[in-house]
Amino acid sequence: MYGTHLASVWLRIAASSCCAALLVVLAAGCGGGGYSAPPPPQFTLSASPSSLSVAQGASGTSTITATPQNGFTGSVALSASGLPSGVTATFNPPNTSGNSTLTLAASSAATTGTATVTITGTAGSLTTTTTLSLTVTATPTAATPVFFPVPGAYSQTSAGQMVTLTDSTSGATMYYTTDGSTPTTASTVYANPITINATATIKAIATASGFSTSAVASGAYTLTPPGTGPTVAVVVTTDDQTRKLAAQGSVSFSATSGGSAPANPIYMDETEVYQPIEGFGASTTDTAMFDLYEIAKVKQPTQFTQAVSDLFTRQANGIGLSFLRNPMGASDLARSVYSFDDNNGVADPTLANFSIAHDQADIIPFLLLAKAANPQIKIMANPWSPPGWMKTSGSMIGGSLLATPTTTYDSFANYFVKYIQAYKSAGITIDYISLQNEPLFVPNSYPGMCMPATSASNDCASSTDQQTALFSHVLPALTAAGLSTKVLVYDHNWDRGDYPQNVLVANQATLSQIAGVAWHGYGGTPGVMTPIHNMFPTIGQYETEHSGFVTNADQASIDFPEIIQNMRNWARAFVKWSLSVDENQGPHTGGCGTCSPIALVNSSTGNITYSIEFYTLGHFSKYVLSGANRVYSSNAQGIVTAAFVNPAPDNSRVLVAYNISSATQTFEVLWGTQTFTYTLPSLAAATFTWNGTLVAGTPAYTVSAKSQIQASSFNSTAGNNTPGNFQTWGLETELTADTGGGYDVGFASDGNYAIYKNVDFTGVTGVTARLACQPNPGNCGGTLEFRLDSVASAPIASVTIPSTGGFQTWQTTQPATVLAGTTGVHDLYVVFKAPASGTTALGNVNWFKFN
After folding, report:
1. Cα angle 473-478-484, degrees, rounded to a multiple of 5
2. Of the residues 270, 278, 438, 734, which is catalytic?
3. Rg (the chain; Cα; Å)
């Protein structure tokens, strides 16, 4: 205020006299600030963004802003300097009092690299500058077109072979030739699948705005002329999931050529029959039923109805699931901890308060819908825990079944009886039960219970056991109630084959109520099911749980080889874990927070989507009908298979093949005297289906001993069959880490052997084998013997099993001489013989080949 006041006084003085004007100047000097003239008008420049990246043949823009200061008015003329060769600058407008758009355009020959571009603004005598960083990059190249099916060999039908082209570049136009010439933009534009009717080489390029022309894609297709055999339908799932259960062009069977050996053959022999197939499916957990029945059905009723069809029928996109596992009470995917007779923790030995009211809200209504959609569905039920008052922990979490009072066993048995009866009253048949989910694992955050195999077992602290509960209480209770429900023993991982062995071995005369053994996939190998089957051939093997996980980078590459290996080892069913979860893998209390479903339900919208597991299961469940039989099929280099014959009146044949290797594989399928050829990219699966009359040869097929025979292609396996030692009842397959992938054969005890039928030894002189053995705990240094037609015959050759440093560290042996005069077609017995150091863990074999 003081400064302002003085100024007004002096200005008034200045108005009355010249002398006073002088005082104004002096007074200002006395103030100490001195007098300065106002700053001249000017402007500043800025660029946004101040850094640009432009590809050759493209352009980029930046906004140049002229900001006036100190009363500047007028227009600023803009220019650019420091431009790389081949780059032009255009300002719009070139003169501005505000913003101008700078376009920097790089020609296709512009110099690449980073340069500093100076922007100059001029207004009369005023000049100012700003800079921006410009990076010129090489013109991106359009992606190379991709062929599907992949180039390779195919048995065409009369309609020819269709080939599709795809390109990942946005807006790409593709041009192709079919005569092997290099395509140009004057070649045929790709618009629809290309049909070829003879062996041809297709070449293709892609162009797109802002991209240079792609590299030339070249695909050689070798086509077998149309055959007179059955037409084979094909569906494929690729590892990149661009194709999921996607129908492909059909192929056809032709008569086998008599002279030449088949290339990478897969032999299918439907005269050699293995197990019946009951189904494929998942679990109807509390979480799944809430998500589907109480969320999706309410918020998206049309989607829910479609999902029931998709899951349980084979119509349209349906995959025909036909085996469901229904938890008896809470599991690790449940909204709360509950049983059917909690009774506030008070003992209720007569089960007077037993009630399935919890399940009547959503589980039972959903199961009724599923059964209506597919009446062939089989249902297995089992508890994660009985009511807490039956247990040492007093809770459904932890503990084991009480040993006292002794009537607890009977209450436990009647718990199953009441459950089966209650479900029957609700219109649902329970086909199977197991006594305890994962009896050797006692979780601390969700229901579980320790239940060792026998009273002599010391796996966990328990005075009760499965063998006693089963044979002395549960089976008699089922019989007394007139129930036909059968029991699956164990219900845990493949790594403890001794558990079902020990439960069953003392009761082999009373197995009529035992349906089989239930297995989980979280440890060990499916191969263990074969020696257990050999020990107990009248009962079945069932894989009843293996969840996918959202943490798995490539679930399909886990599922396909596992399901196939299960089928090759006597599994009658393959069951995933929860049928559904929401986007947070719930809701649930405790338990699994990363388990993936078959169907995903959005908890907010109710939208239903399908995971890749819907499609991996669908390769089997959609085409392999309940009541089908698995039949013999061999594996090939890089290809693993499972084959089936469906029951009448369908009678169709099904072959599922998976390329387990990292390279494209071509293979030839031989069915009797007919054959077809197909090619699969790495980690892709195909399901082949056909009808027709088998033209059988005599023998059904012949394998050249001079081809590489995958050890996992055995027709059967056995051993010395020592009572009470399942490891002497045959060999086991497992996934191999060897080049080419597939399954190796091992877990060998002295005298274990595998049989390979119909091997032609014409012209052989030596044999090599692909072997692995780890000393300690293994016993390396034994021999792999090759015998003809009988395990008791004299060996025609043998190779020493070397110590390779690991059971998955592989070595090809030097050729061993074959007994002179060996010729003709024989059944080959490959026998493991132990060294002096020990009789178990003798090593693994991946393949062998006679020279």
Report:
1. 145
2. 438
3. 38
Marked catalytic residue, from 278, 543, 545, 785:
545
Average pLDDT, the chain: 94
pLDDT per position as a tens digit, 30-45: 344 456 678 888 999 9
Q: Give the list of residues 6+ apart from residue 71 with CB closer than 8 angstroms, or none.
A: 41
Q: In what order do the strands lie in the sheet with 99-106?
A: 42-48, 59-69, 99-106, 87-92
Instruction: For residue 545, indicate whether it is catalytic.
Output: yes
Cα dihedral 510, 515, 517, 522, rounded to 10, equals -160
Find all residues with CB under 8 Å of 234, minimum gap 6, and list them. Answer: 247, 248, 249, 250, 251, 678, 686, 687, 688
DSSP run (H or E) holding 418: helix 407-425
Distances (CA, A) of 455 to 452, 458, 469, 700: 7, 8, 10, 49
pLDDT in tens, 753-790: 999 999 999 999 999 999 999 999 999 999 999 999 99
438: annotated active-site residue: yes
Look-up: residue for tokens 């998709």? 310
Contact 613, 644 (CB under 8 A): no
d(CA 565, CA 563): 5
Binning pLDDT at 50, 70 and 90, where does residue 403 land?
Answer: very high
CB 204 within 8 A of CB 174: yes
Q: First-to-last CA distance in the chain?
A: 112
- Cα separation, 86 vs 300, in Å, equals 58
Using one digit for the tens of pLDDT, what is the confidence trace for 534-545?
999 999 999 999
Q: Is the pLDDT of residue 20 over 70?
A: no
Identify the three-state secondary structure at position 157: coil
